[in-house]
Amino acid sequence: MSLVLSEEETMIRDTANDFLSENAGPDMLRKLRDQDDPCGYSKVLWEKMADLGWPSLLIPEEFGGLDFSHTAMGQIMQQVGVHLATTPLFSTGILAAEVLKKSKVNKNKEKLLPLIAEGKVKIAVALEEGSRYEPAVINTRLDSSSNGYLLNGNKRNVLDGGLADYLIVVCRHTSKGEHIQGDLGFLILDANKTGIEIKNNMLIDSRMASIVTFNNVEILEDEILKFEQTPELILENLLSTANIYLSAELLGVSQKAFELTIEYLKTRTQFGVKIGSFQALQHRASHLWAEIELCKSIVLKALRALDQNSDDIAKLSSFAKAKTSKISEVATNEGIQMHGGIGMTDEFYMGFYLKRARVAQMLFGDWKYHTDQAATLSGY
Amino acid sequence: MNNLNSFRKDIRSWLAENCPHAMRTPMLEKDICRGGRNPVFQSEEQQIWLKRMSEKGWTAPTWPVEYGGAGFSKDQAKILREELSLINARPPISGMGISMIGPAILEFGSEKLKQQHLPAMAKGEVRWCQGYSEPNSGSDLAGLQTKAENFGDHLIVNGQKVWTSYGDDADWMFCLVRTNSDVGKHSGISLVLFDMETPGVSTKPIKLISGTSVFCETYLDNVRVDIEQVVGDIDAGWTVAKYLLTHEREMLGKLGTAPTEKSVKEHALDCLGVCNDRLTDEVMRKELIDWEIDYLCHQLTMERVNAEIASNGVGNTSAMLKYYGTELNKRKHELLVSIHGSDSMHWENNPISRQWLRSKGNSIEGGTSEIQLNIISKRILGLG
User: What is the domain range of residue A135?
Assistant: First the structure.
């Protein structure tokens, strides 16, 4: 596949840009944050997105979706980064949709996929258990009981957990008793079930991530998701997918932070000249521009790999996340520095980009994690 | 599409039959075929390969047939490139003729210049060099002082050029000279062509830190140049020069990406300690993967930019690719030196040291990294 966007993909990107210019942006994010009861996302924006069909993009037609490509959805996520749009699109429309799509026919799948497509349900994925990202460490246990199963454990950093109607929980089956660690399993649970406690935390980027506790939650057979592939493979693919979309968002964040910075260099006057005429700043800006161009290429390559189901998805995902994470750090740190005093203020936008860049980087592994991962997958 | 498929088939079968097997093996610097008036061929196969390819016009496939090319469209030329790389075929001829001054003559030159120079270039019969930099005009190229006095039917050129790649082996030079000192520095420059055997032309090789002498100083002492050898209009040479510099940047941006070379990873796995399929030196491992990530990103960017140029016809990325590509190549040679340890410090019998020393020039020749960053900030970012 060519590394140029098709007409359709370009159209989706431009539509997303137009729509989010009107309906999102740092000012709206600030308003959301400063509400008395911040819920971490904009309900109005989410409804409008659903009207545009965005949550249905990755859902197959038979479940009421549009069955578009990852590259198309990636364009939207990039614009989500540019405009700092806060909605459950990532948790529900991408992560939950991908898991449910791959699960075998089941009444939950048949009920929930069409609801995701309509934007009528929010589903959070409960995976991480530690503060530093270690996806292999899963101690949430599913044990056999007289009537079925019992679930016990703690999850952290569950994106949009507090507002979710359903949870997808990654756990270990210990029912068979033969493994210390047990087999990996995926559950789909009503978030209101007895024994589930959800504690909301606001992150620095004004979004919500929850600590979810499972205390002897009774699990029925049809709440356990079954797949054609092994659950390990499903998890690996979910993590790669998550990181490729976050890379697209980080690219958007970097692009906008850079654009704001260049505008400032062209308007701010000191010593009687525009500060953009200083070579010390020009060279840093030019270098950063080159780095962002490199990010564009790796993000597009990784999205295309997802669409083609290539063998090197995991590797490209780590390459993309490592690169975009690093460059988003540079773009936002330089954004603050080159803006000088105004860059530090809450009144200006750069702080919102800095904060989102750092949170998005840490979700599903920062550049240190993915650099190591990239090395392993490249045979170093 | 079908036409292109049968076109590909024809090319493939011709190459299968006509590309000598010795020309499908990895090559070193010394194996590059540079042609010229007094060509030095490393082997009979090398000579045959050049002859066969140039007879088809495939050494300059997109040039019109009457100028020694094959009249291929961009798509056809791409297929030829793909088929050549599929069998790891060596370039039949390399140098500044086909890749630089040829396209400029095609774009800006008179009919006479095209007929005189292009067919010989495509056959590899003339070896070209570039007279750009001067002792006092490096990064500030447009400040060049080599003077050409206009006598109507000819110019008399006086001055000195430096960093002339392979100047001592070249047959002809394309050279920037000042034809007008009364106008702005960019406006009084012309691009002229002359034979290196013209009386008054002399060269002196410059020994580099790598021990090799790829560059020369070139002295021009009352050199007579026919007025017809001016490419484009007189005093309008800067436009041609910029066009050429873009080509040069694109070429240099691809440095160190020839697929036939042993990869950095192969060097690393051969020389460094490995335990459970993992390098034991964590610091080297981190440096290597950082480079590997940037290298892939740069490769993909070249691919993306080429695809964008092919579909939209726009591209302003040569400065970025030159900057990033050459910096990456320097990092690569730093890594190779680290990987090979003290062996890489041997002056003889280990090319690693010399290649490392040579790579220091990559971010200087063809416009320094700092000049590329200036170009990006002025032309792309619009910073004044």
Answer: 125-225
